[in-house]
Amino acid sequence: MNKDFLKELGLHEDNSGTSTGQQGHHNEAKHIVSFSPVDGREIGRVSETTREQYDAVIAQAQVAFKHWRTVPAPQRGEIVRQYGEALRKHKDALGQLVSYEMGKSLTEGLGEVQEMIDICDFAVGLSRQLYGLTMHSERPLHRMYEQWHPMGIVGIISAFNFPVAVWSWNSMIAIVCGDVTVWKPSEKTPMCGVACQNIWAQVAAANDLPEGISSLINGNYQVGEWMTEDKRVPLISATGSTRMGKIVAKTVGARLGNSLLELGGNNAMIITETADMNLVLTGALFGAVGTCGQRCTSTRRLIVHESRYAEVRDKLKAAYGQLRIGDPLDKNNHVGPLIDKDSVATYQSAIEKIKAEGGKTIVEGGVLEGDNYVSGCYVKPAFFEVTKESKMPLHETFAPILYIMPYSTLEEAIEIQNNVPQGLSSAIMTTSMRESELFLSTAGSDCGIANVNIGTSGAEIGGAFGGEKETGGGRESGSDSWKAYMRRQTNTINYSTELPLAQGITFDL
After folding, report:
1. Is 262 a known active-site residue?
2. Which of 328, 352, 353, 401 could form a disulfide with 336 if both were Cys (CB 3.0 to 4.6 A apart)?
3. DSSP letter at 484?
4. Which of 108, 115, 262, 396 is the catalytic position?
5. How many CB atoms lie within 10 A of CB 412?
6. Spatial distance between the Cα atoms of 398 and 390, rounded to a whole number of angstroms
């Protein structure tokens, strides 16, 4: 395989010199080795951040923050604009790396880098729109207003399935807000983190920026714990499993810090009597098998009106038969591998449990073998018929496993959809205005994302991304999500010659 994209991104076998943004003192460091799920080959390695190095990174970030917070926001936006331009230059190479290290299809890898570019554009505009409010005071000759200040160091813990985009959602917005960031990428996709940091370093050097505005640390959960326990890091943005998020929330909450959590999803698509079948097939199939079912917004459950149930089941079964599984860098393939063999084992275990509780196989799963699947991480997307009483659909399996079940009334379908611990994304396929409005009403979906006539995955950066319940309640990316990265301050100015108290209180001397 031609790996020129690695050279373009400044990657080589041992990336220890760039893993934390600190040069030197890495000769005796332990390393994280990155293996591609595409072919099982080693991509490269990065040094694990030691505690001493971590403290040096945080100290450097503190110094950088004192400078960066005084830079006017539009000037901060200009740096982000330049980073977006650098991403455009390296889009093909970074997209290939995402695909090769994570395993998603090349079109999805390129799409993820486009998300980074889009959020840079959004953040540039935002740099001139960090608005506060002006309020009327109850006291004469007084003025009240609120303003927003940067929070400080933002610690970012990201997951393997979107190894670059989620970091950019957080980092680009935090940077225009005047914060500095320290990023711990997933140990399953460390090379993507180094590549993004290398591109940032080029932009920073061209603008004579101090080191520490954007920093990178690498390691396992213990390195993440250093950040979550660190009072010098006022905000932790963590993306991953619900189990991980509960630990982060408890740890950060114990020190009265702030946490922004993007956790699990168990997303359903309701298909009504009036649904357009062309939309159903495209939305359901991509939602279920895109990224090999490893999106937090992947479609896990289809809740289908009983009058369309057999039609949807049979047409989807036929569509599954047309899927091409293989090397994700080959644009002819639809589905790449799972991230590693542990994920394969989880997938196999889930299928066994589904069958044990009576799930009926529509499309058989299984691990693929042969010369085209040497990594051992390629699996068949599986499709099962279940009932609303089934237990397995209540649990998220991060793999391409789809469940289908019938319903009779829309109220019943919404109840089934909402009856899971997670609350990230949801969708309804309908041509009825009444059905769509009920789904979007307060009596409808309880998810942070609710779509009509599109699938559960594929969110745009302009809207706030996140969910409720065990999804964590956080919001990233667009809308007013920037407020999570800043602290609000209320100001009252008295321009009179007297000092009246609020609420009519008197205090005479």
Report:
1. yes
2. 328
3. G
4. 262
5. 14
6. 18
CB atoms within 10 A of CB 418: 15
**How many other CB atoms are there within 10 angstroms of residue 262's CB atom?**
29
Encode burial over 271-298: b for 16+ CB neighbours within 10 A, e otherwise: bbeebeeebbbebbbbbbbbbbbbbbbb
Distance CA 298, CA 281 (A): 14
Q: At what angle do helices 433-440 and 410-418 cross, to 10 degrees?
A: 30
Amino acid type, 447: C
Say if strands 422-423 and 468-469 run parallel, antiparallel, or are unpaired.
Answer: antiparallel
Q: Which residue in 171, 91, 75 sits closest to 124, CA to CA?
A: 75
Contact 392, 351 (CB under 8 A): no
User: Which helix H or strand E contains 35, and what residues bound it?
Assistant: strand 31-35
Q: How many Cβ atoms from other residues are within 10 Å of residue 452's Cβ? A: 15
Contact 402, 288 (CB under 8 A): yes
Cut 0.90: pTM above it:
yes
3-state secondary structure of 469: strand
Residue 108 CB neighbour total at 10 angstroms: 22
Q: How far is it, in rounded angstroms, from Cα 459 to Cα 111?
A: 12
| C-alpha to C-alpha distance for 427 and 447, rounded to whole angstroms | 10
State both tokens at 216: 């990178």
* 145 beta partners: 134, 491
Structure tokens at 496: 């009179």
Q: Give the sheet arrangement for strand 153-157, strand by strand.
A: 214-216, 180-184, 153-157, 235-239, 258-262
Q: How do residues 278-320 score in pLDDT, each as one tens digit?
A: 999 999 999 999 999 999 999 999 999 999 999 999 999 999 9
Radius of gyration of the chain (CA): 25
| CA gap 342, 145 in Å, rounded | 53
Extended strands (E) in 258-351: 258-262, 267-271, 299-305
Rounded to whole angstroms, the Cα distance separating 288 from 302 reads 10
- Taking alpha carbons only, the member of 291, 352, 282 closest to residue 325 is 291
Rounded Cα distance, 145 and 493, in Å: 9
Residues, the chain, total?
A: 509
DSSP track, 202-258: HHHHHTTPPTTSEEE---SHHHHHHHHT-TT--EEEEES-HHHHHHHHHHHHHTT-E
**Residue 357 one-letter amino acid:** E
Residue-wise pLDDT tens digits, 126-179? 999 999 999 999 999 999 999 999 999 999 999 999 999 999 999 999 999 999
CB atoms within 10 A of CB 454: 16
Tell me the residue type at 201.
A
